[in-house]
Amino acid sequence: MRKSLAIAALFAGPLLGAGCEEGQSNVLGGVQAIAYISSEPVEPGNVFDYANAGTNGNIFTLTPPSASGVKKNLTNWTGGAIHSMDLSFDAREIVFSGQAPGEDHYHIFRINVDGSNPCDAEKGKVSIGACQITDGANDEVYPIYLPGGRIFYTTNKSVEGPEVPQFRDEYERATTSQVGVMSKDGSDQILGPRNVSHRVSPYLRSDGRILLTEWRHLGEVNEGDLITMNQDLTGVREAFGREGNGITNAYLHAKEVAPGKVVTIGTSRDRTFQSGKIVLVDLGGAALSDQSEARSSYVDLTPDVPGDREPSFPHIGRYYDATLVGDVADLQLLVTWADGAVETETLAAAKASPDFGIYVYDGKSHERKPVVNEVGKWEFSPIAIVQRAEPVQLKDSFEAEDTQSTLISALNVYDSTIFPNLVKGSVKKVRISEGFSSEEGFPNMFGLTEFDGMARLGEVDVGSDGAFKALVPPNVPVRLQLIDKYGMAVGTDGDVMNGSNASEPLWIQGRPGEARMCGGCHEDRTKTPAVAPGSLPLQALGAAAFDFPGKLRQERKSDTYTYEQVMGVPWDKALQPIFDEKCVACHDGSAGAANPSYSLMDVTDMVSFSFTFDLTSKPVELNFGDQMYTYSASHVTLLGPSMALREKQVVVTSGEIKTYVEPGSARGSDVIRRLNPPARFPAVDLNDRAFGAMPQHPADVGTYNGVDGTRPEFQLTPDEYYLLILMADNGGQYYARENAGGNQ
Amino acid sequence: MRRYRALFIASLVVSLMSSLAFAGRGGSTAKLESAVRSGSVDTIVAEIERAEFLACLSCIEPVRALVDHPSEKVREAAGWWLGRRGVRKEILSDMTARLAGQDPVAARNAGDVLRGMRDSSALPALAAYVSKPLDEESGVSVVRAIGAIGAPSSLLVLKTGMSGSLTGMRVASLKAVRELRAEVGKRAVTDGLALLPLLSDTSAEVRREAILSIGHVGQQGIGKSWSNLADVVSTLSQLCTSDSSARVRKAAAWALGELGDGGGRAALAAAQNDADPLVRSVANAAANRLR
Fold first, then answer.
1. Which residues of A203-223 are buried (b: 16+ CB within 10 A; e: fewer)?
2. Least CB-CB distance to A187: which of B213, B216, B288?
3. Rounded to the nearest 10 degrees, what angle do helices B72-82 and B41-50 cross at?
4. pTM value?
């Protein structure tokens, strides 16, 4: 730490300290005025918290943008909160999200930059102050103007209505924010298809596409990356952060500096007041056809600023947002910055708060000049009040024909950047599974893994050309997995013993009537598929019907656990009967060759734990290190305490600890390898086994304790093999809709 | 020798697993304690979340102490974390016992902790408290816990809260209705009929929350199937144009837009000339939604 501070001090030389200097001249060149939000300091929560914008917030203009400029309070609220705002294309109006005085939700408001009421003006009246265009029992935040008099925003209202509350976040705690659009007068509200976690911080690019931050949570993926979508909430695609190109865990407040280039704030999920380093991102090229996450790159404009949750340093601080003013070649950024640690624990211990103010930052010289920073107040989210060109109204997504469901299709599943070594002919089906979180009446977890709730919607055949198409419920996040002839997510390189498999590491979704048509499966996004309207890949005709028309969300389940009908895999209902009938004659928890034991010691707490292989339904309270699991012995046996072990300094004091199911990969799961399932596509073939010459359990052991493992009653049926495979491929959860249990 | 080799391999495996770059990992007792000492609500909640999968006996007591932290956010987060630990039953028992006691602060804190735990086995104790709350603040906390658990059967308990004498509990009960799941096969947990009496409550806050809940359960055309839709629209129209509270008038305008019934047009037209600018603009948006 001391060394880091010393290095930081070396870099601090050219930087100016916080605070305004009286008489400071306009440092923004031709910009005549700026608008900004002023608020009392607050702990805003993690980067996705949207309902804690502090108190006594107001929107100000500063003319000219200098310390001696004239400040004008546009909103004149007392006791309200302002969350975020945007400036209209003609620079005359501001749309903002705020919690009006006395209210308990954030809604969308409009106000002219001269402080007058634009809604009344449209009716021929003259009045002062903001007008409100949304109300109700939910929050609407992050409004931005769209072409054609529309507004994009995010909200915790559910597109699927009041049947079930909105999705919860990756910790199954906070209510997520999702996307929506509406007319400027608040009418014609359309809610977009949902991500399983949050979407926040949108920005309209000059090409008309919306850039925003999406929290990606699928299994052990946990990060806030940049995505783009169309103005009508269709056509979501990744922009930056994944595929090995990122620098921090989350990116916020991305804003375009030139076509194909954006600045964004890179930071950790929490403890940094939603602020971090300024990152200049190249999305892959100026033209959309050149842009793809795989081709993106970045330059860290503030390398001294920590990208994680560690305290920053004097004169280094952290940045809340950054936006280009002037020519991109000059790289002059209007920024919100605070000096010092800008880390919650450090500052709270000192009973201090960061002091965010507005500065101009030179991206080349790294000089920072103050614009406005009042003591005891935060000034943030500055916008230069200048006109900008209104982008075109885009409607460029593929439209599915003859359906109001979402059509998912690919021209050739073998065309993939993340699975480049797929063996031709190895993919027999595409499995499509719906994702959800615990708001449907589940406990705080779905089982011993990080995976969300899932329900298999179906598996669709892949043609000889690698193409497939299927209808899925609109607005619902789904995950795609390429399936081999054994019913497992296919290996990515032809090596049967390689557990990596071709499962898309993200959720995708579509609007009613949208065709989410890809060239391949995570193919090179610079290769735009050439598909004419009306062509076969866009027609519902011939698509597998996994859309469950007329079924409500909680009704998308099955109590028949066959290959054809299984959706969720409730452990106690779908799997335990298999164990009871085929396995527990040997694997009953009695220590021995069939039931190995292990003992662990947590060397930090000196707590020991012992467990014996057991596939019975006996409830187990696995109390290792006081983390409790109350699942069946079979679930604890196969999934193990692996999540806890990642956190601890643990030694195995006897036996061998083994996790028999690798969540998300049947192919990589020891239990599946031991069972060595048979081929089931195009037809069941007991002589063709997934892992070749490997033994087939239980026949491989012969007789044990008087039980003959070669007898037919102990052999799994093809459907039983498949249920175990589906459980592993979809994350190894204990709970599914079929055993949610919370809807009494 | 073989024993040492097994120990080494196990440690190596665990060490490799630990080094994977998962967001939010790396929690410890010391970090939790340090966060608590700082007094920062954000830091405490962040560290509790980071310790999501941390098996940690020595963390139990520091987190258990947070059930009586001054911040309800921290109390809720502590409940969430403790609900995943071996002390879950003990905490459940402790919290439900508090609800049977005579200390309203302890009961309030218990409600927040149980909200974080979201364990439906606490519902009977929570329901009993709703019928005999020690004070308004604790009653609100308990009602919020019922909402967070979200069981559709809790509607009956919330109706008790709605009919109680404590204004805050009536408000909280109406909010909690919006958290309940519908029974499987139904589009909403209730209809406008159950909430209609609250529209004439003496408290403007209660009237407003009742309106918001009616708009919530009647959205997306669901209200059009209600047998009493005309009564609901008529009452909302009256509130929209003549309630003494601008916030009530505004909420009523919004709800008329959500219900989408043409019967609300006249009231919305009138409300566009309301003295309050926020009522005017929300009524305008709602009227445009009825077009």
1. bbbebbbbbbbbbbbbbbbbb
2. B288
3. 10
4. 0.92
